[in-house]
Design goal:
The complex is a heterodimer of chains A (210) and B (214). Chain A is mostly helical and 210 residues long. Helix content of chain A is 68%, strand content 0%. Chain A contains 13 helices and no strands. In chain A, helix 3 packs antiparallel against helix 4 and helix 9 packs antiparallel against helix 10. With 214 residues, chain B is mainly alpha-helical. Chain B has 14 helices and no strands. The radius of gyration of chain B is 22 Å and the shape is elongated. Classes of the chains: A mainly alpha (210), B mainly alpha (214). Chains A and B meet through helix 1 of A and helix 11, helix 12 and helix 13 of B.
Chain lengths: 210, 214
């Protein structure tokens, strides 16, 4: 980003915080600018000015793909206050794929206690893989969650885990990934999950590499 | 008992670890003690601002809150340290002194905001201190928006954002910065036209060359 642009963005964000009313017309101007960074800044400025719902909607509209890191980071800066909005969008069948997946990725990174929306998304034929990767995005931040979600999937013999082609790790081979997950999930220890289901899942994963 | 604690802090031959621990805990061991603050102030005054122990002493003063005012001059001196962590800790301690006392430190605190060598993390700490000081910090800070260095202007804007509605008097200056780049470009274009008319070659515009140096 050029310094000129950074400066203009800093000015808008400052204005939104020192005098929100004065910022409103400028937010509107930035919101239709042909430079994407300025449109994102307009969205975030709305949040700073107190209109979080509008800000969230504006950012969703600017999201260009399912791995839009700038949008993700901006939403993460908005923190937990947007969690209900994220949840609603994740579950909204009318929302675009980009919006649902972006929201799932952001949600997963905000240390949520309720993972049901994302786990439901795993079953989605088209977006299951993307929801799975959203879980991985959260994994980095919350190992306990990953253990819990794995157990939930394992305990219910979730179809995603029985479809090895859907399970992938961006960084390791399939087999290594399975071993990694096994360790993370505590599958090698004596736990309450049904052994048969666990073995079945692992066997399916191991014998049908990606 | 307190006197013996202060004596430990002042004795050069005492264990550095013991003195450090005692410094950390002093505000708990001797709450509301003016003598403790005076001891810390004396120690700060006799310590080099670039010495690591300055941080412990400054933090200890901060533990006494508004009672730490006698150490203000030493804390302001710490803002000039070549060690950034000393500057950040002294700024934090100044924030603990509260608005009337901390007002004296405004120019030095703003000096950190506009210093291009200082990290964003320290600037953020200082911005929070300026927010605590409030209204009195706004005008001298906003004056720095006139800086020729765009990076300085940007850091000032970030600081005003942290200060929030108390800085509402600066909204017009923020609005002016929204078109900052356009104004610079317009000036460049006008200068270019003037030079072309007079048949000279255009030099690098000052505002841009300043940016390249950052």
């Amino acid at each position: 980003m050029t310094e000129d642009k950074q400066l203009r963005i800093a000015a808008l964000l400052a204005l939104a915080q020192v005098q929100a009313a004065a910022a409103a017309p400028h937010m509107a101007e930035f919101a239709v600018d042909d430079q994407r960074e300025l449109r994102i800044a307009a969205g975030f400025a709305k949040h700073l000015a107190g209109s979080t719902t509008e800000a969230f909607q504006a950012l969703i509209e600017v999201a260009e793909n399912q791995n839009d890191e700038v949008i993700e980071d901006t939403m993460l800066d908005m923190a937990k206050v947007i969690m209900p909005l994220l949840l609603r969008t994740i579950r909204d069948q009318q929302a675009t794929d980009e919006a649902r997946v972006t929201c799932a990725r952001v949600y997963a990174q905000l240390h949520p206690s309720d993972w049901s929306a994302i786990l439901e998304g795993l079953a989605d034929e088209r977006l299951g893989q993307d929801f799975y990767e959203a879980i991985l995005a959260g994994w980095e931040f919350d190992e306990n969650f990953f253990r819990k979600s794995w157990w939930l999937c394992a305990a219910t013999a979730h179809p995603l885990l029985l479809k090895p082609t859907c399970c992938k790790s961006p960084t390791t081979s399939h087999q290594n990934w399975v071993l990694e997950v096994t360790e993370m999930s505590g599958l090698d220890r004596s736990q309450s999950c049904d052994t048969f289901v666990r073995l079945l899942i692992l066997r399916r994963l191991l014998i049908q590499p990606r | 008992m307190h006197d013996s604690l202060f004596a430990i802090l002042k004795r050069p031959e005492e264990s550095a670890t013991l003195k450090q621990e005692l410094t950390y805990q002093l505000h708990k061991l001797t709450p509301n003690s003016a003598a403790a603050v005076q001891t810390l102030t004396d120690l700060l005054t006799s310590t080099d601002v670039n010495d690591a122990s300055y941080v412990d002493l400054a933090r200890a003063v901060g533990g006494f809150g508004t009672m730490g005012t006698p150490a203000l001059r030493a804390l302001v001196a710490g803002l000039q340290s070549s060690e950034e962590y000393v500057r950040a800790t002294c700024a934090e301690a100044i924030g603990e002194l509260g608005a009337p006392a901390a007002t004296t430190a405004i120019p030095s605190l703003i000096g950190i905001i506009v210093d291009s060598e200082v990290t964003v993390s320290t600037k953020s700490e200082v911005a929070l201190v300026l927010k605590k000081i409030g209204q009195n910090a706004v005008e001298p800070l906003a004056e720095k928006l006139a800086s020729a260095n765009p990076l300085v202007r940007e850091h000032v804007l970030h600081t005003l954002a942290v200060i929030g509605p108390v800085a509402s008097s600066t909204s017009n200056q923020c609005v002016a910065r929204l078109d900052d780049s356009r104004r610079i470009l317009l000036c460049d274009a006008r200068q270019q036209q003037r030079l072309e008319r007079s048949g000279q070659r255009a030099p690098t515009p000052p505002a841009r060359s300043a940016k390249r140096q950052v």
